[in-house]
Amino acid sequence: MSDSEPSDSTRPARPRFGEYANEKKPARPQFGEYASPEEQRAAIRVPATEDNESVPIESHGDEKKSSEDTARHHVHMPTNRQPKKPSAENNAPIAEARRRTDRFSTFLLLGVGLFSVISTAPSLLQLPQMLTQAYAQFGMGEYTNTSFGTTIGWTILIVYAGLWVAALLLSLRRLAARKRTWWVPFVVGVVANVIYLILLTVAMVNDPAFMQYVNGMNG
Fold first, then answer.
1. What are the pLDDT tens digits along the chain (219 aa)?
2. Alpha-carbon radius of gyration of the chain
3. For the chain, how far is it from start to end, CA to CA, in angstroms?
4. What share of the chain is helix, strand, coil (3-state, %, to 5)?
5. How many CA atoms lie within 13 A of 162 on its CB side?
6. Quick check: 102 and 176 in contact, CB under 8 A?
7. Burial class (CB in 10 A: 0-12, 13-18, 19+), 127
8. Which of 148, 149, 152, 135 is nearest to 214 (CA)?
9. Is the pTM of this model over 0.85?
10. Quick one: DSSP state of residue 28?
11. Any residues with CB less than 8 A from the CB of 219 and at least 6 apart, and which?
């Protein structure tokens, strides 16, 4: 061995891992493609450096709070929405049409009642003659209780006129207050007719000719 040849102690060691063994190994990626989801989540929580950007991570507490808010929102949401009530502006034409119909019906019934009072007034003032004509048609003779029949006739006429005036005043008052009124003259007319029949029956029952006719039918 010559002196020019280097000895084994001074000869550089052969690289163990090839000729690139001394080169710096690349750093393992923080978000490697083989990392598990848990490792990726843990890596994301690493504080931001100059080489990487911080990624906002929602904690489990925030997720739980968000889910609770969503559930609460769904719980308090109404399942059935109430239908919208019609506004007063939409109801105004309908209400006005109803008031006009009610007003027309009220005055129509009042007119009928007034015509009934006027048309029956002559016969009521001469109730004994009217009953005599009715008796003649049925072969009952002649109405003899003239004074009592005249009193009953005046009573019916006064009741008729008084009820009509009361119906007129009450109807005008209710119409001014924008209340339903058509039933007032209707009810008053029914009451007046009932009173008329009752008083007319009283006038006939107190007549001897009528009672004689009834007893003859029963005998």
1. 445 555 555 555 555 555 554 555 555 555 555 666 676 666 666 554 555 554 454 454 555 555 555 555 554 445 555 655 555 556 788 888 999 999 999 999 999 999 999 999 999 999 999 999 999 888 888 899 999 999 999 999 999 999 999 999 999 999 999 999 999 999 999 999 999 999 999 999 999 988 888 888 775
2. 56
3. 180
4. 65, 0, 35
5. 9
6. no
7. buried
8. 135
9. no
10. P
11. none
Going from the C-alpha of 213 to that of each of 89, 141, 146, 207, 218, the distances in angstroms are 68, 9, 17, 10, 9
Place of tokens 């190994």: 25
Kindly give, in sequence order, each residue whose CB lies less than 8 Å from that of residue 156, ignoring residues fewer than 6 positions away.
124, 127, 195, 196, 199, 200
Q: How far apart are CA 39 and CA 36, in angstroms?
A: 5
The token duo for 151 is 């009193």
Tallying the residues shown for the chain, one arrives at: 219
168 contacts 189 by C-beta, under 8 angstroms: no
**DSSP string for 120-153:** HHHHHHTHHHHHHHHHHHHT------HHHHHHHH
Neighbours of 134 (CB within 10 A): 14
What distance in Å separates the CA atoms of residue 158 and residue 150, rounded to the nearest whole number? 13
